[in-house]
Design a protein that fits this description.
single chain, 269 residues, mainly alpha
Length: 269
């Protein structure tokens, strides 16, 4: 499958998953936060399409709520991390000097820190839902991309059109926005798409361990954690969430790999 076809296939699958997570609960007879006290650990039925959990919550609506939260965290964290990487990398490469040393020192410092441990400690002490996780995850996802952007900016700033713009008196922000960032758009698009799956998996792992999305809200990780004890006896409470997580990661990786191969054919050789 060519890069373009992989990107299209992944994009279609991702759109379908987003539509399912958004519109699926609207069609369900039960809300994600409702409890059926007459149906504990029930199998799939006309009333509960994928059965109920041990606490009587509808598995279908609950899992789709978790998928929506996980997708929201992944998309927002990826955009924030890529955006910060673009700003930090272009500023370091274009300005050089003290700004370059300070920004890259910060990136190196974050690279050597145990990111999972730091995020776990901070998330456990922070109040709030998934919006709190977004900046925490993004804070440890931008460093490598910023270094790549910096290297590309060092090359771009010596090109004729950039030098001409600087000689005409344009300020650094305008030169970067008009003549540097457009040349990095494909790199940043690929990075953002691949970061989505990284953020989704990281958020699901934190929620699985109890440090992510807080009850009564859920994410795919917390749904999987709740159903892991009865994965054999109650497969509907575990398998649907695990399957959705796998599909989300596959879809996003297809988009990222497809974009990379389509925009940079030499990278796939």
């Amino acid at each position: 499958m060519t890069g373009g076809r992989r990107a299209v296939a992944g994009g279609v699958l991702l759109v379908l998953l987003v539509l399912l997570a958004f519109a699926g609960p609207l069609a369900s007879p039960w809300g994600w936060d409702e409890t059926d006290f007459a149906a504990f650990r029930q199998g799939p039925s006309g009333e509960h399409w994928l059965g109920t959990t041990q606490s009587g919550r509808d598995v279908f609506s609950l899992t789709l709520r978790g998928a929506w939260n996980s997708l929201s965290v992944g998309l927002c964290a990826a955009v924030l991390a890529t955006g910060f990487a673009a700003v930090a990398g272009t500023a370091a490469g274009f300005l050089g000097g003290a700004a370059d040393r300070m920004l890259m020192w910060g990136a190196d410092l974050l690279l050597v820190l145990p990111s999972l441990l730091v995020v776990t400690v901070l998330a456990s002490r922070a109040a709030g839902g998934w919006p709190v996780l977004v900046p925490l995850l993004a804070a440890f996802m931008w460093m490598l991309t910023a270094r790549v952007v910096r290297a590309a900016t060092l090359s771009l700033r010596e090109r004729e059109h950039v030098l001409a713009a600087r000689y005409l008196g344009l300020g650094a922000p305008r030169v970067i926005a008009r003549h540097v960032l457009p040349h990095l758009a494909s790199l940043l698009a690929v990075d953002a798409s691949l970061n989505v799956s990284v953020a989704v998996v990281a958020e699901s792992g934190l929620s699985y361990l109890g440090f992510g999305v807080r009850p009564p809200d859920v994410s795919l990780g917390s749904v999987i954690a709740d159903g892991r004890g009865g994965a054999t006896a109650l497969p509907w409470a575990f398998g649907f969430a695990a399957g959705l997580l796998v599909l989300i990661v596959v879809a996003v990786n297809l988009v990222g790999d497809g974009l990379r191969d389509a925009l940079h054919p030499e990278a796939g050789r």
